[in-house]
Amino acid sequence: MSDVSLFFAGGGTGGHIYPALAVAEQVAECRPDARVHFLCSTRPVDRRILEKTPFAYTPLPATGLYMQPRRFLRFCRTFWQSYRQARRILADAPNPVIVGAGGFVAAPVCLAGHKLGVPVALVNVDIVPGRANRLSARWASEIFVQFEEADRGFGGRDKPINAVGCPLRRDFADSDRTRAFESLGLDAKKKVLLVTGASSGAARINEAICTLLPKLAAFADSWQIVHLTGLDNYEKVLAQYQDAAIQHKILDYHDRMPDLLAAADLVVGRSGAVSVAEYAVAGVPTICMPYPHHKDRHQYRNAATLVEVGAAVVVDDVSDPADRAAWLWEELETLLKDDTTRREMAEACRLVARPNAARDIAERLLTLANG
């Protein structure tokens, strides 16, 4: 069996890194001798995630594409710097395969692989492909997507597009509700409301929940809150919980989301592509508050995949703070009271959960590496 090298190119957000990491874990399980290397961005989130893994990683200087003259020149300069660095790394690797995972750092690596004749695959978990993946698609021999609708975003390219789902870390197969309760000091007799804005937090969700703390006091006997604030919002949110009557645990970040989602009886959160896949696989009813400022509104479309089967409801993240909190409370109060509806929503998650996506992609990538 010949040596193989898998290079995962992408980063800048957890939504790009975590799916790639899930596939990398499966590659390592299928082929322990495979070389796995991440080519990521210089943003702190990439390092924070990858330094806890057994995989090597190299930050590349690539930056995002902006049309202001100075920032566009910087994009061009860092693109070609990243391209040349990736080309040097790839040139010495045995049987390399590149996996573009999205984000501005992916495209120069995929181009370098194409120029060297290296197989290029893409993992695209968004319902609307981002610019990096749309650009890289011209060099890809295979594209893996979470949503079947995503193939429209690739402009009808004559490439195999496989709707396999969103690859999730293997920890989701070993999630443990009890472990979350014990590690966070939660009350085993109370249900858990999990509030999350994904890896970066969501200031407007934080604000809405904090506004509702006096009303949530009515549920203090049977519910507790775990609130993930994001690194930049922790102190502000913590201060607003100071006099909260409902039991709570405030965290800036948590790296065992599978356990935390297993512990949750209800989630209030964003609806990024990875998040909706995690909600579904965890089987947790969700109030989705899609990020409202994407031009293509793709978080609304992500959430719709859960809403259509009855696994989630959507609350608009409207600009007025009072309206936002009022609309959230309308759904939140109902679901906090209604055990039957939450149970039905949890069961509906099975209709869209795709727990084997990471392994399916890993096996195909190893086939590409062996020609």
What does this structure look like?
The chain has 2 domains: 5-168 and 356-369, Rossmann fold (3-Layer(aba) Sandwich); 173-351, 3-Layer(aba) Sandwich (Rossmann fold), CATH 3.40.50. 43% of the residues lie in helices and 17% in strands. It has helices at 14-30, 44-50, 69-91, 106-116, 131-136, 177-184, 203-211, 213-216, 234-240, 257-263, 273-282, 298-307, 321-337, 339-348, 357-369, and strands spanning 5-10, 35-40, 56-59, 96-102, 120-124, 142-145, 161-163, 191-196, 223-228, 247-251, 266-269, 286-288, 312-314. The strands form 2 sheets. Strands 3-2-1-4-5-6-7 form a 7-stranded parallel sheet, sandwiched between helices. A 6-stranded parallel sheet has the order 10-9-8-11-12-13, with helices on both faces. Helix 1 packs across helix 15 (357-369).
